[in-house]
Structure formats: structure tokens, C-alpha cells
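Hey, can you fold this one?
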Amino acid sequence: MTLEQKKAAARKAGFARRKVAFDARGPGVAGKLSEVLAGYRGVSLSGYMPIRTEINPLPAMEEASAHGPVGVPVIDAAGQPLRFAQWEPDCAMIEGAFGAQIPANPSFFEPEIVIVPLVAFSRTGGRLGYGGGFYDRTLELLRSKRPTMAIGFAFAAQEDPDIPLEATDQPLDLIVTEAGLIQPGA
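Sure. Predicted structure:
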């Protein structure tokens, strides 16, 4: 089995586990993420606008926006890093690429913390996304400029100890689930 086939199989299993967790718990489990972000008041960060069965970071993003800039990712084109548009709880939004909402009048910035959606994760900081490589390219670019923290936000059921990884996959620094925090390497 090729690496791409292994990733496709892991992605399919991850989506299935995430859907079960989403249906069982619902999207509103952002309390643990708020607790983590409280330790970084005023630090620029980016969350994401949840789609499908992604865990919902919006309550934590709303709280953080009272203390500093919060953004959401914007996809410009395939094969390119993401850009981050400043977001506020009541700002006008339009549909962006892949159906995710983005600010109607974007003002771009580079966050120091990136809350990353995912399909599956491992306790060692491995992350399996949708397969486009957007977050890997983006984190590599941001980390080439300055320390950038990647926080995976997921349901505990999305954990997979056997995620197939490749050299370009960027690690997570912290994983937040409804069950608690996972600190890779700690």
C-alpha cells in the first residue's frame, strides 16, 4: 500500500470517528480551548469557521477577540499557503473556497497561534488533514519567520496512533479535546 493509499484509508476512518463524536457530543465543546487561549491573551491567533462535522472553535475565538486579533484562514489557490483575515464575532462574512466562511472585507495578518482543524491526530503531534497540504505549507512558512504554535482542536475520538506521516507534515504543539490537553513530547 502506498503512502497516499494509507493516508486515504486513515482519512476515511478519521472522518467516520469524527462524525460519530460530533453526533454524540454536538459541536459546542470549546470550553477547553478557551481555557488554553486564556493563557495567551493578546497574542494574535487564527481559528477557523467550522464546516461539516468539525469541532466548533467559535466560542473560544469570540472570547479571544476581546483581547487581541483573531483571524480565519483564506485559501487563495491550490498549492499556496493560507492567508489569515482578521475576524470579529459580528463581521460580515461571505463564502470562500471549500464552503468555509471568510470576512467580506479582509484585513490580513500573520498569527502567532494557529488553531488547526483536523481529521485525525496522534499523541506525538501528528496531524491528518483533508489532503490539500494548506496547513502544512502555511505552518512551514510562518515557522520560518518566527515561533508559531499549532494547536490541534478535535474530539478525543479522532485520535489515531498510526497516522501515516511524511517529511512535509508539520507537527502540532498542543492538542485540545473535550477530554483534556495532549502535549506531544511532554
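The longest helix spans residues 3-25. Let me know if you want another pass with a different chain boundary.
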